[in-house]
SDR family oxidoreductase (Vibrio tetraodonis subsp. pristinus), 235 residues
Amino acid sequence: MRVLIFGGNGGIGHSLCKQLLNHSPEIELHATYRANKRNDLSDDIIWHNVDITSEDKISELAAQFSSIDWIINAIGLLHTPSNGPEKNLQSCQSEFFLENIKVNALPTLLIAKHFSACLKASSHPRFVTISAKVGSIEDNGLGGWYSYRSSKAALNMLIKNISIEWSRRMPKACILSVHPGTTDTPLSKPFQANVPDGKLFTPDKVASDILHIIEKADPEITGSFLSYDGQTLPW
Ligand SMILES: NC(=O)c1ccc[n+]([C@@H]2O[C@H](COP(=O)([O-])OP(=O)(O)OC[C@H]3O[C@@H](n4cnc5c(N)ncnc54)[C@H](OP(=O)(O)O)[C@@H]3O)[C@@H](O)[C@H]2O)c1
């Protein structure tokens, strides 16, 4: 089985790599990184240095594969050294909004576009992107976090749209949007203070949940927005 993880150096992405290697030693595991790859699994992972916001780079990466069984996109942005999620309209800045769209939504579109042929060559193609419950429009009762929420809502629309196109062209495929729950990674670090007891998950627990979802997934549920526990979330 051949698997490609986008963001294999991130908190959840790296745990996905570890668990895939533990459970399926025969796997051919590829992972992407931006600046620094993790060294601990270096011998077991085929690393690719990719700017996931560049269509040319994603197209070049796709050209290296004839087939892929599973793709998981674990890349995401919530804050940068200079910006964080907005509390109100006045703190919104166009550059940060566009950066969120560029990192949280656009790569899934580009990956789907350029990896369609590789996935179609698999007998059980799966494409999972890690989204976030705060991207649910229906579930939004708190407001704020304009850029992140909007980028994840856009991501969810992409997943739904791709699922419709692929159900015609690639009926064996299953594409899902998955909410991991609040996970102890650099992305959530500044926002962990008010997380209820027992609701801050380890990346290993979350990776295990996500892999369980993918293992059980079939084309009948393609285009779903699922929580880490398998529950369907409202769009
Ligand atoms: N942690 C949570 O509580 C939580 C909750 C809901 C949803 N999520 C989602 O889960 C996914 C994984 O996040 P995580 O918690 O594992 O966070 P993380 O540890 O911060 O990992 C984020 C990953 O995204 C990559 N990335 C960020 N900005 C990038 C950019 N401009 N270009 C290329 N790569 C970039 C990072 O690469 P570098 O290492 O090079 O920066 C890293 O691989 C994200 O989509 C996030 O939105 C997380």
Q: What stands out?
A: The chain has a mean pLDDT of 97. Strands lie at 2-6, 28-33, 45-49, 70-73, 126-130, 174-179, 224-227. Helices lie at 11-23, 55-62, 94-120, 146-169, 203-216. The chain has five helices and seven strands.
